[in-house]
Amino acid sequence: MKNERTTPLKRFQKNTKGFTLVELSVVIVIIGVLAAFAVPRFRNAVERSKASEAFNYLSAVATAMERYHGRQGTYADVLDKLDIKMSVPKYFSVGAVQPGSSGDLEDSWSMTLTRQGASAGYGAYTIAFTEDGYDTQNSTLQQYPDINPMGT
Fold this sequence. Notes:
The protein is α+β, with helices and mostly antiparallel strands. The protein has helices at residues 2-12, 21-72, and strands at 92-94, 98-99, 109-115, 126-130, 133-134.
């Protein structure tokens, strides 16, 4: 008799190895919530690093411009005259050197980089430098403090 009772019970018992649909659904929801927070942060970090590349390039140009001004008494009108060997930023188009606030290259200059290609939804923002450094007035990067390496 004992054997007859255990046999019908074994027939209704299921193999309990593996995960249930509810457990899998909970894991998928948790992964989705984590991804919703992580993806925008990652995207911003990547875009911030690209903007940092532009800042490094313009900082090198500014330093070379000061050296050129010290030797020549004026700022260079083209980058080829400068003593730097730095590759152009990959994700930005380089604008021409322009006279700065005084309107004359003898004592001021200005240059702008414009973001090209897919920019994580930020559009074609610009980064401008002058003889005084980062130009907050003419840079549209100011609108995006989450990717601005200067933090302002």
